[in-house]
Amino acid sequence: MPDFLVISADLAWPLAVLLAWLAGEFIHRWTRLPRISVYGLVGFLCAQAFPELFATESGNPVIVMANVAFGLILFELGYRVNLNWLRVNPWVAISGLAETFATFAVVYLIASAWGVPSMTALLLASLAMSTSPAGVLRVVNEARSSGQVTERVLHLVALNCVLAVLTFKVIVGFWVFETSGSLTQAISLSAIELVSSALLGAVCGMLVPAVLRHLGNLAREGTLAFALVVVILVAITHATDLSPVLATLAFGLTARHRRVAFTRTQRNFGAIGELLAILLFVFAVSTLSWDNVVNGGMLAFVLLLARFVVKTAGVAAFSQLSGIPWRKGLATGMALAPMSVFVVLLLEQTKNSGVVLVDELAAVAAMTVFMEVLGPIITQRALIWARETSKEV
Amino acid sequence: MALEPFKESTPLTMGVELELQLVSFSDYDLTASSPDLLHLLAQKPFPGHVTPEITESMIEINSDVHTRHSELLAQLHEVRDTLVDAAERLNIGICGGGTHPFQKWVDRRIFEKPRFKEVSSLYGYLAKQFTVFGQHVHIGTGNGDNALFLLHSLSRYLPHFIALSASSPFVQGGDTLFNSARLNSVFAFPMSGRAPFTLSWDDFANGYFAKMEHTGVIKSMKDFYWDLRPKPEYGTIELRVCDTPLTVERAAALASYLQALCAYLLDRKEEAPAEDDYLVYNYNRFQACRFGLDGTIVHPKTYESLSLREDILTTLRRMDPYAEKLGGGAALNHLMQVTHMGSDAQYLRDQFAASGSVEGIVDAAVQRFRGRR
């Protein structure tokens, strides 16, 4: 007779994904809330109810798949970013830089005042700079939104991610230095990791379009080829401790700018992309424990509120200068609310280098859980308020 | 409410309306950005007029009233440059072309304006499918009788304008094998096609229009989507069969060609128009849409088969003295080149072959509209 517990462990993830999908469909149809908010909620509840079934060790296929799902989303984001726009209308980039660094400063100051140790406060602040591409892009695609808020949110998310990864890695470098004692080793490791990751993605971004062009039928092969290379990039970065975030984002960016005009990659990478995304959102909160959420809850609430206000005000302040009305500027800032998935994966990847931060940063756990559910809802409401969604939402 | 009186206008004045595509530089699909662009444009004086169109992925620009080709072209250049600058600030590409090659009509949003909402609720998906882009040319006719005379006399030359402006070979991601697929979308509307035959404005206004209004089917001239329609409030006739060309140079040239043709027809050297001219109207229209300059049309009076390209060349030569007098010589030369080099539809097909993707077509159209290709 097969061991019941072993079967349950094998079945846990597929069943959780199925449950999340079903719940997402029902609740979305009933309330019009974003499906991904429901996925996160289901993931968190499953993990709290059966912690031993959902425990994931490093190298677990679920983590690899979650990383692939995130890689696909980052590629799609990079593919939609037009760097030339930031040159033509520099106020868009300036608003992004302002809100990102203001968020860093405000979160650091609040956390320090709360009594959080300096290094921890710095890490918290760097994580708060980010906006999760997964949350934003999924909501944008689900709502079929288009307009200035949509365009700007996508560009600002890419900017936030890059700046957050850079800052986070530098601070982790210092963290490593504090424990290992070698400053040069810590900095050079971070710098090498960042540059190598971006370079790896950029090289793929040049090679893949060239090969596709050679093959001829861009419309058919494009999506598949891009997906395959994302999988390979995630595998390489995983094996070599590079940053899959930077690599896949750089891949998308370069592919777009090298293409002349390649065919539009299928939104969300089709049904497989959808499947992986459910897994990603279920996984993201399954790593967090209820105790951490409770411990960090109050600080998380204050930090999230501060982050939300600073980001919204930071973008809105430049709205007129950058050519949009106040209302759309405010909506753009509000739509930057999601941050969870990005943070969880960044912390997961940092585990590989022996730095375990989730327990240190109880507030992060709470922020992640709140924002996994609330973030996409805020983005969706901001897009509706800006009248950029299709009427069906 | 009776049809308003036909406004007296200066004969042979001209004005141009262009419906333009708003394209996202993120993925080259249409983007629902007309509210954003109109907001930005409203902050500075605009060298013409710009208005929203039925879906938020389109805008319409209008020129002032002009008498000479050079003045019209200068204003269209200024309008284009202002538009392109504003659009680039918002990461939007602007281009001509009668259709967007791969947009899905289901993704379009109707602009928040009562008339557009009414049209949408009456016509259902046809309203969103109407995300096609045309050039309208107005010519001043002096009075209503002249307007109807010109309107019916021009029916024989309509295929010229379809073939010369054709720029919509791709729809929903595929090559339709038409040069102007846009007109097929217009044809789906019940009030499309040709105007009823009468040469008297009184008969038109008090007879046909009054009866149609009584049926409750129409409320104003705006409800007619005819290929050529009188515009009493401006004192003009309006040609509506042209696709929006890829360049403003071609738009100005087409307007000047129509101006010269009207000058020629008002000399009344041709046999007067008759109802029977319309026997071959739909066939000729189809030939021009399907085959462009390579089409074969039937002369409505002699029933002789003619190569459309040859017929255009012959007519252009005959219009030379009229164009010279009106200052439109350069315009006719431009169109002469088109008959040799091929239409915008041909250019778009070439771009598809070169880039291998429908996005490549849009990219090329955006560059061409800027005057950089």
UniProtKB/TrEMBL annotation, chain A:
It is found in: Membrane. Gene3D superfamilies: 1.20.1530.20. GO terms for cellular component: membrane. It is a multi-pass membrane protein. One of its GO terms (molecular function) is antiporter activity. The chain crosses the membrane at residues 6-24, 36-55, 61-79, 153-177, 189-211, 218-236, 269-290, 296-318, 330-349, 361-379. GO terms for biological process: proton transmembrane transport. Keywords: Membrane, Transmembrane, Transmembrane helix. This is Sodium:proton antiporter. Its main location: membrane. Residues 18-384 form the Cation/H+ exchanger transmembrane domain.
UniProtKB/TrEMBL annotation, chain B:
Keywords: ATP-binding, Ligase, Nucleotide-binding. ATP-dependent carboxylate-amine ligase which exhibits weak glutamate--cysteine ligase activity. InterPro entries: GCL_type2/YbdK_subfam, GCS2, Gln_synth/guanido_kin_cat_dom, YbdK. GO terms for molecular function: ATP binding; glutamate-cysteine ligase activity. HAMAP family: Glu_cys_ligase_2 (MF_01609). The keyword Ligase applies. GO terms for biological process: modified amino acid biosynthetic process. Its EC number is 6.3.2.2. Belongs to the glutamate--cysteine ligase type 2 family. YbdK subfamily. It is an enzyme of class 6 (ligase). It holds the Pfam family GCS2. It catalyses: L-cysteine + L-glutamate + ATP = gamma-L-glutamyl-L-cysteine + ADP + phosphate + H(+). It comes from the Bacteria. This is Putative glutamate--cysteine ligase 2. The keyword ATP-binding applies.
